[in-house]
Amino acid sequence: MIVKELLPQLTGLAIRKMKTCNYGKAASPLSYVSGNTAPALFINSAGPRMHAGREDYIKVLTDHHIYSEVQNFEWAPHSFCLYEPWFTPTVRYIDSFLNKVFPAIK
User: Fold this and answer.
1) Residue boundaries of the structural domains of the chain
2) Binning pLDDT at 50, 70 and 90, where does residue 51 land?
3) What is the Cα 53 distance to its own chain's centre?
4) Where are the alpha helices (DSSP H) in the chain?
5) Is pLDDT of 42 > 90?
6) Of the candidates 104, 72, 14, 58, which has an alpha carbon nearest to the alpha carbon of residue 80?
7) How far is CA 35 from CA 26, 99, 102, in A?
8) 10 or 63: which carries more pLDDT confidence?
9) Alpha carbon distance 60, 86 (integer Å)
10) In 3D, which of 28, 57, 63, 26 has the Cα closest to residue 41?
11) In terms of Cα–Cα distance, which of 14, 71, 8, 84 is closest to 45?
12) Counts for the chain of helices (H) and strands (E), in that order
């Protein structure tokens, strides 16, 4: 019962802490992208929510002449890349991207 009574206070404290610490900004890849960022491959499901910030990230890469590539799977669930019929194409996209970024030395 004590926990139940304290819950509103603890929740309020947690919300105030999150607002002052700005965890969202610290967790965002946009906070760290720069001219020193590695090339990026974005493999996305169709859900727009899963694309949040992608275009902004790509813009920073493009401004610094850093290669990026986007591959989308229509009608794919969020964890699509772990299962067929998406797993094999995902591996192909990754392989193709890495071959572009790190061409074989002959």
Assistant:
1) 1-29, 33-106
2) confident
3) 8
4) 2-21, 23-27, 54-63, 87-101
5) yes
6) 72
7) 19, 21, 18
8) 63
9) 29
10) 57
11) 71
12) 4, 2
CA 103 to each of CA 63, 89, 91, 96: distance values in angstroms, whole numbers, following the listed order = 23, 20, 17, 10
**Token pair in block for residue 28:** 């965002």
C-alpha to C-alpha distances, 63 to 13, 74, 106, nearest whole angstrom: 40, 28, 31
Phi then psi dihedrals of residue 71, to 5 deg: -125, 130
Query: Tokens 């105030």 sit at which residue?
Result: 16
Report pLDDT for 85: 92
Span 12-23, pLDDT tens digits: 556 566 566 666
